[in-house]
Design a protein that fits this description.
Elements: H1 13-49, H2 54-77, H3 79-101, H4 113-129, H5 150-156, H6 160-213, H7 221-238, H8 240-259, H9 267-293
Length: 294
């Protein structure tokens, strides 16, 4: 029966802790941003419906005060930085773990598991040391798990042919499937939000034309304009179109990488294959993190 790696229990605890911190921060960031944008539209709507009413003005002021609080919280807490740093740590740990399991450089089999294990653990310490700002977010109990699980040791001790099959099926195929699904998902979301933006702009134009016909008409052009701005801000934050392109390209690159496995016959060739594959896997994430920092 082939060995199966479960990311939630078989990879080092640092991976699970960083992954959990990243997911929580991502949820917090987009949740707060979504509430912020919705409240902005609601505030504009209240101002339109009750332009001279004292309670309406008070309600609008409260809504804008809440949005200000959310904006300050996002600026001070910087959940987007936690999200990206956590993802960087998790992906770095995963890459190192697969290299170790496959006996790839720099963890080639030298007949002494203790040496390669110490080197692997030293690399994990280095990854954590380079991301100390994330340490206070690593609250998951998974962080206390052993850095090298029994499943990792079992896979490392398998013959070359079995290790290669596991790497192809559980690393390369999983990555290709993930990037392919995410590319399709972001393509759909980009189209949906684009349609929403077009619809809001069309509604605003129709309202303005109607106001020209009937200057006395009360139409919520400002509310629609605020909603259109909120949609644009959400699109810029989600970057669906950009992710669709980068994920799609990475998925195709991984498929091409998989074909290179046919020429792997020796431990040296396996090591080169794994190193090249892991470099391709991390390239997209590295570029994405760099774009975020710009």
């Amino acid at each position: 029966m082939p060995q199966t790696i479960d990311n939630n229990k078989d990879l080092p605890g640092l991976y699970q802790a960083a992954d959990g911190a990243s997911l929580r921060a991502q949820l917090w960031y987009f949740g707060a941003l979504g509430v912020y944008l919705v409240l902005l539209v609601c505030a504009a709507l209240v101002s339109f419906l009750w332009p001279t009413d004292t309670q309406g003005a008070l309600a609008s002021a409260v809504l804008f005060l809440v949005t200000l609080g959310i904006l300050i919280s996002l600026k001070v807490k910087k959940p987007d930085d936690i999200w990206y740093n956590g993802r960087a740590v998790a992906e770095s740990v995963k890459t190192r773990s697969w290299r170790w399991m496959m006996q790839a450089e720099p963890y080639q089999d030298i007949g002494n598991h203790e040496i390669t294990s110490k080197l692997f653990i030293s690399d994990l310490k280095s990854i954590l040391s380079q991301n100390r700002s994330l340490s206070h977010e690593l609250t998951s109990s998974a962080g206390v798990l052993d850095p090298i699980s029994q499943k990792m040791k079992t896979i490392r001790d398998l013959p070359l042919e079995e290790r290669l099959i596991i790497y192809q099926e559980q690393r390369i195929r999983n990555q290709a499937d993930w990037y392919s699904r995410k590319s399709i998902f972001n393509k759909k979301r980009a189209f949906q939000w684009f349609c929403a933006s077009i619809a809001l702009h069309a509604i605003a134009i129709l309202m303005l034309l109607y106001r020209i016909k009937d200057p006395s008409a009360s139409v919520p052009v400002e509310v629609i304009a605020t909603a259109a701005g909120a949609v644009l801000t959400w699109l810029q934050a989600k970057k669906h179109s950009e992710l669709n392109s980068s994920y799609g390209l990475t998925a195709h690159e991984i498929v091409l990488i998989k074909g290179e496995a046919l020429s792997v016959k020796t431990e040296t060739e396996l090591s080169e294959f794994v190193v090249n594959s892991e470099s391709a896997f991390s390239r997209e994430h590295t570029q994405w993190t760099a774009r975020k920092s710009d």
